[in-house]
Input
Amino acid sequence: MGKKRARVGRALIWLFVIGALLAGVNQYSVHQGQGSWAPQLALDLEGGTQIMLAPLTEEGAQVSTEQLNQAVGIIRQRVNASGISEAEVTTQGGQNIVVSIPGVPDDATRERLQASAQMEFRPVLTVQPAGDGQQSPETELPDDGELLDEDGNPIDLEELLSEDPEGEGTEGEGTEGEEPGSAVMNATDTEPSDEPTDEGETPTGDPESTEEPAEEQEPTDGSDTAWITEELAEEFMAFTCDQVDRSVPLPSDRAVVTCSTDGTMKYILGPVEVWGADISNADVGQASTPQGVPTGEWAVNLEFNSNGTAGFRGVTERITNLEEPRNQFAVVLDNTVLIAPASNAVITNGQAQITGNFSQEGAQTLADQLKFGALPIGFQVQSEETISPRLGESQLQAGLIAGLIGLLLVVVYSLFQYRALGLVTVLSLLIAAALTYLVITFLSSTQGYRLSLAGVTGLMVAIGITADSFIVYFERIRDELRDGKTLINAVDSGWKRALRTIVASDVISLLAAVVLYMLAVGNVQGFAFTLGVTTVIDLVIVALFTHPVVQLLARTKFFGGGHPLSGLDPHALGAVYRGRAKFRQPVESGKQSRSGKEAVRRQTIAERKLAATKERDS
Amino acid sequence: MRSITQFGNNLYTGERSLPFVAKRKLWFGIAIAIILICAVGTLLRGGFAFGIEFTGGTEIRVVGIQTEGAVAETEPAEEILTEELGTTTDFIVSALGQDGLRIESASVDNAQTQSIVDRLADVYGVSSGDIASSQIGPSWGADVSRQALLALITFVLLAAIVMAIYFRTWKMSLAALIALVFDGVVTAGIYGAVGFEVTPAALIGFLTILSYSLYDTVVVFDKIRENTAPGSAGTYYENINLAINQTLIRSINTSVVGLLPVGAIFFIGSYLLGAGTLRDISLALLIGMFVGTWSTIFIAAPAYAQLRKGETIAEEAKRKQERGAVV
Output
């Protein structure tokens, strides 16, 4: 008995620990200023606009998961760049992008979201750190963690090609890497440039010198600084990164001003030389020396189709020997510069390698961006929903009122059906509710979960499924009592049988929740989520609270003695006292003739023997 | 209470036994009749009534209208829409709860929506922030349905496998699935026959009741498993029927406890909010939970008995043992 009591105590302590842990973590995040003690509400309860976008590729091809993630990145940047705070961009059902914005978006924002994104390669004409305060709120550059120092500048990048490409000038600056964007692009199969088309006579891309070129001078190629007209230079000097316009593609046939994706550098870029669509593949590999010896560093391998190969060859021939930064080649995605590696070699076979202190992850992200960003992606608005804050509030209110009424009805019914035992149901439900609240606020504080109306409905439905566990358990105890067991024994054996049933049925419920969550679109996710969470909580509560409490109660005189109001009165349950606190069912009462075979069959062998003996005796 | 407990006792001991298995042909007949009624009703009504989420269109909701107790008038809104859209047929204006309006129309562009919203705000004396609008493209509903169908098939397959493993017999899985199909068809049929609007929220409810139905079936089947475990005396018929009877009180209690909160959501949702997520989900659940409990007792368990026709528990146990020995 003592051992059992210890086990009961332990279960309750565990429950307390779980609750305290959740509360503690939540308190911590509140303390850190991120969390809150109230769950965050989704748009339908708080008000705001939800825009559902479907990515469209030009050929109408199906969008792959990688492309979708790519698209989410692009959309997130656009939303952040438009200065909308608290916007949320998520995917749904593996094919849609959902943008949730507080308030109502203006037409400019709408257009920006729908514009199609494309990738292009442009030569760098000049580069300068962007001024202060123009940082876009969230950087999307995947490798920024590794590549930027505390000032936000890219840190030194090692040049990996051991063989110095022919030509002068680029090497010193390129490898010392005080300049930003100093990743390098190498030929995987090194063919030293025989005849670098040197445009070195033109002025360097130094911003101060940009005003020098004569305005009338026609640019001769993509790297010609003659592109930098006086107006463009002025625009460049005044340009801040929040001016990047993503709603219209940059003009492809002339020089443009734009920023790096992370908003730290601004560039003047020449006209488009190679299109992203000409990339045939991009993957991650180990960088190697021209002799094929791996250097142990991560690199992104790029492969072009014939069109891209020709274009790329032309560009690298021209820029490889130019001075920094004009030997750089900007990869532009959605109008901002993803990366601008310096060219170290003329690439004739359409196979280039980009290196630059990548982590494996960083390299992979870049490779994905190159590969999946290559296809132009457009976005189509599938649905747009605006909920006024007032409607949201009244929906939340209605949901809560309904929940309270529902809970009250359940309480009344439980008390009616199970008398005092019904109080255990009520208490269990209350604790389940408290634990659910903690889990929801915890997820809301740490994972950004938002409670939607569908989620609230999921919680209401969960009341029924949670209460069912108690009903199954109580009915099993009653069954055992009917078999003539003492309450303490009935609780133990009833629990063992009930637990199996509860686990099996909850697994089915959880399965449904998980499948719905993974596959569903729209509101279904919010609903499936709360349903899943409450199913797990149901198991926790029934094992760590309801059962231990019933075990404790079974030892009280009120319950153990089978008080008529306890809900566990053996006499009411049809059991018959047969000495030493054992009851047995009245199978051999006069009604046996009508009770059918089933009742007889339910007797144990011992009982049957006993009955037979009695028959003989009488 | 006394009589329910007494009833429960009698069901447990078998003193009183409702003929769930014996009369199974009757229950199956009733089930088929219900399905036929649903199908015919749906056909007569001309198929399902899909919400604008499926057909595409614009929905505008106005809340917080000062109505002094009466339901908000729809005429002013109808006038505005007739003028803006140049037609009287492409929209529906309906009351939304006590102080709101709901307008559904064919797709309207953003500028036009804005102008309608402004005029509505003006006429009804609410701020335009109190007017919510949704714009739904026609492909959205197709997307939702496709994903829901995919989720449904995945769930049913996985659940069938889990049940077959847990109960160690595919016959229980099959019986549970037969009941599940019934639930799905009947719930959908009620929607079709009555003309309830099919919205994504209703679809959520629909998916949930299928999970609830299986959940309910598993509870009863677990009792059947216990009663028909190797070593039990008697036939499958007797034991299955006893199991249904023994869990009957639990089935009643559970469905009452489950239906109470859902019913509360339904009435509060319809009364305070009118059409919307709350009402749509809870309506589907209300129908589905009832049908799910019914189908467990009158279809799933009798169907399992049918599948076990002529088998005895002893034979089956022996067969399993032999099969085990071969493996």
Q: What stands out?
A: The radius of gyration of chain A is 36 Å. Residues 297 and 504 of chain A are 50 Å apart (CA to CA).
